[in-house]
Amino acid sequence: MAATGSDILWQLDGVRFGYADKPVLQGVDLALEPGCCHGVLGPNGSGKTTLLDLLCGLIAPDAGAITFAGKPLSRWSRRRLAMRLALVPQDFSVRFGFSVREVVEMGRHPHLPRFGHLEQEDHQLVDEVMEELDIVALGNRSVTQLSGGEKQRVAVARALAQNPEVLVLDEATSSLDIYHSLAILEAIRSRVRSGRLTVVAALHDLNLAGFFCDKLLFLRKGKLLYHGRVDDMLDATIIHDIYGVEARVHQDAFSGCNQVSFRLSR
Ligand code: ADP
Predict the structure, then answer these.
(1) Domains held by the chain: number
(2) Which residue, judged by its Cα, is nearest atom 19 of ligand 1?
(3) 45 lines ligand 1 (CB under 6 A)
(4) Per-residue pLDDT averaged across 98-107, rounded?
(5) Per-residue pLDDT for 6 more than 70?
(6) What is the arrangement of strands in the sheet containing 223-229, beginning at the earlier edge strand?
(7) CB atoms within 10 A of CB 67
(8) Is the distance from the beta carbon of residue 14 to the nearest atom of ligand 1 less than 6 Å?
(9) Is the pTM of this model over 0.85?
(10) Which domain does 98 fall in, by range?
(11) Has residue 22 been placed in a domain?
């Protein structure tokens, strides 16, 4: 069935973007529907971060159009967008020595009136996400003193404290151990399943994508080559075309997901 306007959260038509004279994204047409988890995959330098930055309005396309929730993205104010959308960037950094709790509390700022303070329900939400992401014990530590994985958990906690309808994750679990990786993805997935959240996540790990995502899109050299349901996208021919490696895909009884094994092409 063709998607109607209300089925679509983001619509990209003929989007092009380049840095200086270097084209990065070329003619991307894409419709992302709400209520599921979209994985963005592709080799290094294929344009994943650039695409996420465009979706969040951090950069503007050189050509083409992007709409979010039916309105041109360029017409959304920063604050209105932040009330609906949270980004966990690849290189989360806070310049000053804010405590972990203060950084998570910053997630509430788009929802506060000007010069307003956090209310009891804001504090409660902050408590809940800190508990969920296992960072309560880090609460008084300065974020500048955390490990890469701890910082990623704080960045996701701040984004969830924002209570967004849409979460954009750029390699947000790349520094995490497997326990925290699965715990964070499960915390996010349970919000998606209950219809409270839509996710767009750039991921490197195809097996994590198989576990976490409903839909996958593959970029190569700035072009969107494949987009569809995860079970159709985890396909040996597609993986070979995108990454140039041999792959075998099998249904894994333990995880209940499709999983991929790889080897270099001979
Ligand atoms: P990916 O996330 O898939 O690794 P990126 O979107 O980060 O890819 O980058 C796509 C291309 O754009 C790469 O060739 C990268 O070197 C280039 N690029 C990214 N950021 C900049 C920048 N600020 N200035 C110039 N080139 C950039």
Answers:
(1) 1
(2) 50
(3) yes
(4) 95
(5) no
(6) 85-88, 166-170, 198-202, 37-41, 215-220, 223-229
(7) 19
(8) no
(9) yes
(10) 85-163
(11) no
